[in-house]
Design brief:
By secondary structure, this protein is α+β, with helices and mostly antiparallel strands. Helix content is about 20%, strand content about 20%. The protein has five helices and nine strands, in the order E-H-H-E-E-H-H-E-E-E-H-E-E-E. The strands form three sheets. Strands 1-2-3 form a three-stranded antiparallel sheet. A three-stranded antiparallel sheet has the order 4-9-7, with helices on one face. The longest helix is centred in the middle third of the chain and has 13 residues. The radius of gyration is 16 Å and the shape is globular. It starts with a strand and ends with a strand. The relative contact order is 0.14.
């Protein structure tokens, strides 16, 4: 389908690669990531071009997942690379930006362990309406009106809905299923 493609980072960025995508090559290197262009239905009901960086081992299935999301008219407000937010996860979440690769540590971990996002093995969808909740902490802060999961909101993900089932079909884990915290925006895949 037009509007969906997978490229190496070298193909996209050429000699500007190291300035465009920040990472530690001792943890992950540029050859392990792929740039995806995907169509998505925006909150305005119109098609939009989105971008993601993901690990090369999941690139094909992520394209298939986002093609299915597009065909089911699942609304995604925006999908920009984390470089548009200077890698600032809170800024991206507050803007309700859906994203994947971001070279960072696990939220609330104090910098002990790299997030699945640092490997391109996690995707966050519509984070404002699918917030991260741990005790009294709600991220993004403007996600507070969406902690009640019984309501209907554009782009909200719920257990056993079509979005949940689609990711589970491909073996992804949903943060909304976790016990010690809830990360409703978050899907991750174990490293192969």
């Amino acid at each position: 389908m037009d509007g969906f493609c997978c490229l190496t980072l070298e193909q996209v960025y050429g000699p500007q690669l190291k300035q465009a995508v920040l990472l530690d090559p001792n943890v992950i290197n540029y050859d392990e990531l792929r740039y995806l262009k995907v169509l998505h239905i925006g909150y305005d009901g119109c098609p939009h071009q989105g971008e993601l960086l993901v690990h090369h081992t999941v690139a094909k299935e992520v394209l298939e997942i986002f093609q299915a999301l597009y065909e089911m008219n699942y609304p995604i407000e925006k999908m920009r690379l984390m470089s548009c937010y200077d890698g600032d996860d809170e800024w991206s979440m507050t803007d309700n930006n859906s994203s994947a690769f971001n070279f960072r540590y696990v939220t609330g971990d104090g910098g002990k362990k790299y997030s699945k996002h640092a490997y391109g093995l996690a995707i966050d969808l519509n984070p404002r309406v699918n917030p991260y909740i741990k005790g009294e902490i709600v991220l993004p802060k403007n996600g507070l009106p969406y902690i009640n999961r019984d309501q209907h909101a554009l782009g909200m993900i719920k257990k056993d809905d079509a979005v949940y089932r689609l990711f589970k079909q491909y073996g992804w884990i949903w943060g909304g299923d976790w016990e010690t915290l809830k990360d409703y925006q978050h899907f991750e895949k174990k490293k192969k």
